[in-house]
Design brief:
The longest helix has 82 residues, at 16-97. Helix content is 91%, strand content 0%. It has one domain. It contains 2 helices and no strands. The protein has 98 residues and is mainly alpha-helical.
Amino acid sequence: MSVITIPRSIRERLGDDASEDFATLINDIDIGARKDAIAIAEERFERRLSEVSGMLRLEMEKLRTELEKSGKENIKWMFLFWIGQIAAMAALFKFFVK
């Protein structure tokens, strides 16, 4: 907290009690302004946080659907590979049985 010094000319005109009250008033205004600034910053931060978390949720959902699609694609290729392997083993088995 900063210290407020009242110039001597103002102190002489107002007196000691009024000068102290004036300094207290300025300090109270400063504290109030700081509280308001903090409240505004908190509101902006919360709003931005909710925006970013919403975008993150959308991105995660997009990645999840892409992952499911790639999983289906992998299963399809695995079955094609297995069918090819079975056909190759059947051909080898038929060749050696003769």
